[in-house]
Structures are given as C-alpha cells and as structure tokens.
Amino acid sequence: MSKFEGVIVSDQWLHCQFTQVELRTLKSKFVSLKNQKGKVTFEDLPPLMVKLKAFRDIYNEDEIRGILGESDENVTKDIDFEAFLRAYLNLQSQVIEKQGSSRRLSSSFLKDSITTLLHTISDSEQGCYVAHINSYLGDDKFLKQFLPLDPATNDLFDLAKDGILLCKLINVAVPGTIDDRAINAKRNLSLWERNENHTLCLNSAKAIGCTVVNIGAQDLVEGRPHLVLGLISQIIKIQLLADLNLKKTPQLVELVDDSQDIEELLSLSPEKVLLKWMNFHLQRGGYQKTVKNFSSDVKDAEAYAYLLNVLAPEHSSPATLDAKDPYERANLVLDHAERMGCKRYLTPRDIAEGSSNLNLAFVAHLFHHRSGLSSDTKNMSFATMMADDVQTSREERCFRLWINSLGISTYVYNLFEDVRNGWILLEVLDKIFPGSVNWKQATKPPIRMPFRKVENCNQVVKIGKHLRFSLVNVAGNDIVQGNKKLILALLWQLMRFTMLQLLKNLRSHSQGREISDADILKWANRKLKSTGRTSHIESFKDKSLSNGLFFLELLSAVEPRVVNWNLVTKGEKDDEKRLNATYIISVARKLGCSIFLLPDDIMEVNQKMILTLTASIMYWSLQQQTEDTDPFPSPAGTATTTTPEASPAPSVCGEDESSSLGGEFSNISVDDATSDTTVSSEGVLVVDDV
C-alpha cells in the first residue's frame, strides 16, 4: 500500500524555508549521495551543489568549496540532511548578494513563479483577498458556515488547509473548471482527502493559467501563508482580467483606429490592455500624462480623479482635483468610487504606497462595472471576424496553458503572437531538452530587427529537426509570419515528445526504450482487461470514447476508490456525456494528472487530447510503483506531467505493469516513423491513425 508523507525537518524555521517539492528533491539528492559514499561530508557537497539549478552557471566547484569552507566546519565530519539544507541556504544567500537583489522578496505571485526565502506578506493584500472571498463565496452551500472570514486572524489559512476553499475559488475565477462532485467536501477530512483536494486544486490552477512551479499539495495542507496568498492572488487576478480581450469584450476595439492596431491589441497582455483602456479615458478627460504602471504612476491619485470623472461625471466633485495632499485626494477618489458602487480592493494608504496588485484589481473592477466603451456594432463585428475558429481556439488554449505550466521565465498570453519572435519556443525547448539551445545565437525580446526573429525561429526549426520532428519544408520565417496551423502542429510535437520522454524516463517499466502512441493504447486496454473489464478501444479516435465510460473505467482501474460510480451517467445523451467528461477531467486532476483538455475534447473525441489524457493516467499509474520503491523520489523531469505531491491513496493494480510492459515497448524513435503529425510550410496538418 502506497502511503503519503511529506519530508519532515525537525527545525521548524528550517522547514519553513522550503516547499515540500524542494524538500523532496533535495532529500533525493542527499540520499543518492549518501548511498554512493556511505556518508556525506562538507567535502562531498561542491560536486553536488554545482549541478543544482540554483547554482549552475553562477559558481564553479572551487568557488562553492570556498564559500562552504568559510563556515569553519570540519570538512571531513559527517553531516545530516538538516546540515545539508543549511549549507544550501548559505550558498543561496551568497547568490542573492552576488546578484544584487532578491527576487524572492515578493508580496505576491503575480510575477514570481518560484519562491522560497524571505517571504513578505502585505496585510492590505491579505485583507483584500479575504474581502473578495467573503463577497464571492459567501453564499456557497458548504463554505457559508465558515464565512465571513476575519482578515486580522489566521481564518483564511486555517480554512484553506482542506483545499475546499481554493477549489471553489478557482470555479469562481473560471466557472466549470472543477466538477464540484470531485471535491471532498465535508467537515472532517482525512489527510488523504485533503491531499486529493489540493492535488485537484493545483492541477486545476495550472489549467486556468496559474504558475505553481515548486508548490506541492503538502505545502497547502500545512497552510503556508505565503504560498496560500500567492496562489489566491493569481486566481483572483485571472478572474478580474478574464474579460480583457476582444473575444470576451469586442467593445475594446474602440481603443484602436485601424486593423493594424487591432492586431497589436490582440498581442497585448491583459494588464497592458487595462492600461490602454485607462489611458484612453484619461486622454478623453484631459489628463496630460500617460499611466505606464499600477504603482508609481497612480500614487498621487490624480489619474484616478480624472478617470472617475470620465466614467461617472454625475458623482464627480471639484474638491478631488483641488486637493493638494495626495492622501486626501486618495480618500476623495475612493468616496467617488463608493458612490459608483465600485469601492473595492483599495484603501487610501494602498494608493499612496503604490500597491501594484491592489491598484490593478481596483482598475479591473472599474472596467467590469463601467467600461465607458460604446456598442458600435460595425466595429464590434469587425473584431469578432478576427477571432479564431473553435478548434484552433481550443488548441491555442491547451498549448498556452501547457507552456505556462512549465515554469519558463516568459508568460504566454496570446500564443500565436507571443511565439512569433522565437524566444518562447527556445525557452520551451531548453526546458524539455536541456542544453539544446545555443543562447549565444539567440536574441532576447524586445527584438526590433526582423532578421533576429527569423534567426531565433530558424534555431527552433533546427532543434526540432534534430529531435526528429516532422517539419517538411518549414523555415523560421513561417513561424515569424504567424502561420497558425504550423505553430499548432509544432507545439503538438513538442508536447507529445515531452509526454513520451516522461514515460520513457520511468526506466523500470520501459528499460529506457522509446515509447510510441501504440504502446500507450496497448497499456490502457491491458489495464482494463487486467481488472476484469471488457471495454476496449481500437485507436484514440474510437467514437465509443465520447460517452466517457472507458476513461472512468481506466481511472478506476489505476485507483479503484477515485471514481464514485453513483455519479456516473450512461453517456447516451449529450448532457450525460458532458457530465461524464467534466467528471473525468476533475477526477484525473484529483489523482495527480496535469491535463489541459476540455469536456468538448472528450465528447468530440479529439485524438490529440485523448492521447494526452491516456498518457497522463499511464504516467501516474507507472509512477506509483516507482515511488513505492523509492522513499524520496525526485520529480521526473522538469516538465512533469503530474503534480509531484500526487494522490496519496493506495494504488491497486490487477497485474505487474513492469513485467507486462517491459518487453513490449517498441524501440522506435520520436521521428517521422512514429510521429502522427506531419507539418509542411503550407501549414497542412495530417494526423495518422494510431
């Protein structure tokens, strides 16, 4: 029986400096070194430390040895895991000092994806998030017994420990992301049930665009304030900025003059669209400056006074602009907002201190309630014509969210626009295939010279061909020109390559051989047969998959207690199929699968998305046997398909997957022979049968 335990560190302060994912990874490195040497001394640490991502390319082995030698410790003395962690922190503090600033001093996760040390939490932000939760979840059938929360206490962190609050908040931000039936919602949850909720939460958070790199379910079970607030801030931000695009709000076309400007608008991030909207109204109101950020540029509250006068002139007061003291003006601005029914997220102090997160939330709230944009049907229809077809839009969403889940430094807002300079694609390639990119020959944005973009994209194509992707007559300029079919086909091959490599890396099952789509199909059918079920599919295009029953049986086969069969329908009508498909996605994420498909992908039997779902379930199932033999496994690759803190529930298998699969993985490379995708420069995409 598989059991779930976090890595325990007796020193509470030391324990709090790391997330559980980091502790598990470092523990794995420490145990591996100890197993090799029999004991670990300070003398053994430099060769290990220099290979860790935090210190790679910053220090060499001799420099690390010199830093660790300053501690006056006996270099030949045995050290335990906690001494190893202290040495790690010591070295990390030197890195921060060397770089001149700490990007870990972050009050929220709106920008930073990874945080470990020196956390700071803004009381104003905590109060803002608590008020948001009280407002939007106050009527929730389960949570209303615990609300309203008091921002002056630890109510928020205590309630967040069971995962229900965070799951419900995700559904407020993006309705329908989590099937409520999959949430363990009751007063007294076991550790397993809490962990399942948090695993569901983290995988669902990734599926709406949150960056949760290096956060594990156990971190949230412990209710670590900086991690809880960081995740909440991202979820709320996604909710507030959800409509800041032409698809959701075609009235935004009023902000631009011609079709070329519309293309530029499409490429902007939601925050920049919000700034553009704000400056549009400020210009109309006679404000002479341009607001470029939500911090220093709004500290004096003057921009807010002009903005509110344009949006709600009936509530304006000359005293606001006449006020000489910025704090007094901020007070008057919020009085104006209150008369509009829009006073939320901010206090005068937050404005005066330039709190970027809270100012952004306030302006987004204004946009939702009073956009001040016209309803010119001619312009709106023109904006609507520029939208992608449903299938293209769905695939764009999937690949965008997948890229953002990898934890690369650049966040993707508009896939087709953001990848055209090649930089993001190079980041993705370097993440999934480390060392493949020659960064000396790459140009980082902003890129003004078009040929530099072509150079970046040429390198992308060159690496893709080296990885044996099918790129027939494709050149870098095709990506620069924004060929959507080609971009989608390239990203599908990247995603599929990553997926197959993760499965291959479970060497105890594949003996290090390549894995093909056919192997995944064979595994799924074998798994069902081993548990006495008769369901069988011929390919990932099998129309019988549309009712969802095959995947529910597969999930039940890898973890019998994860599916509640009382909630499953026969899948005969469309509404029954949708219920099953929605439940499948949430159950898979609850199990530990990181997936980005939608219920429609299952109902319509989208071959690519069906393959990713099956492979994710397979990876989780095989990984359980690996974890049972390794008490401190390291995350399998940088682009892991599952939250490292996977479901702790016991995995009951009907057969020994290792022996049944080991000799049957076909030794075929990820090349033209196995790739089910062929791409040409004309953008033709051909998907073959499995």
TrEMBL record:
<dbReference type="InterPro" id="IPR036872">
    <property type="entry name" value="CH_dom_sf"/>
</dbReference>
<feature type="domain" description="Calponin-homology (CH)">
    <location>
        <begin position="268"/>
        <end position="371"/>
    </location>
</feature>
<dbReference type="GO" id="GO:0051017">
    <property type="term" value="P:actin filament bundle assembly"/>
</dbReference>
<dbReference type="InterPro" id="IPR001715">
    <property type="entry name" value="CH_dom"/>
</dbReference>
<dbReference type="GO" id="GO:0051015">
    <property type="term" value="F:actin filament binding"/>
</dbReference>
<dbReference type="InterPro" id="IPR011992">
    <property type="entry name" value="EF-hand-dom_pair"/>
</dbReference>
<feature type="domain" description="Calponin-homology (CH)">
    <location>
        <begin position="393"/>
        <end position="499"/>
    </location>
</feature>
<comment type="subunit">
    <text>Interacts with F-actin.</text>
</comment>
<keyword id="KW-0206">Cytoskeleton</keyword>
<dbReference type="GO" id="GO:0051639">
    <property type="term" value="P:actin filament network formation"/>
</dbReference>
<feature type="domain" description="Calponin-homology (CH)">
    <location>
        <begin position="514"/>
        <end position="622"/>
    </location>
</feature>
<dbReference type="InterPro" id="IPR001589">
    <property type="entry name" value="Actinin_actin-bd_CS"/>
</dbReference>
<dbReference type="InterPro" id="IPR039959">
    <property type="entry name" value="Fimbrin/Plastin"/>
</dbReference>
<keyword id="KW-0009">Actin-binding</keyword>
<feature type="domain" description="Calponin-homology (CH)">
    <location>
        <begin position="123"/>
        <end position="240"/>
    </location>
</feature>
<feature type="compositionally biased region" description="Low complexity">
    <location>
        <begin position="635"/>
        <end position="651"/>
    </location>
</feature>
<dbReference type="GO" id="GO:0032432">
    <property type="term" value="C:actin filament bundle"/>
</dbReference>
<dbReference type="GO" id="GO:0005884">
    <property type="term" value="C:actin filament"/>
</dbReference>
<keyword id="KW-0963">Cytoplasm</keyword>
<keyword id="KW-0677">Repeat</keyword>
<feature type="region of interest" description="Disordered">
    <location>
        <begin position="628"/>
        <end position="690"/>
    </location>
</feature>
<dbReference type="Pfam" id="PF00307">
    <property type="entry name" value="CH"/>
</dbReference>
<dbReference type="GO" id="GO:0005737">
    <property type="term" value="C:cytoplasm"/>
</dbReference>
<protein>
    <recommendedName>
        <fullName>Calponin-homology (CH) domain-containing protein</fullName>
    </recommendedName>
</protein>
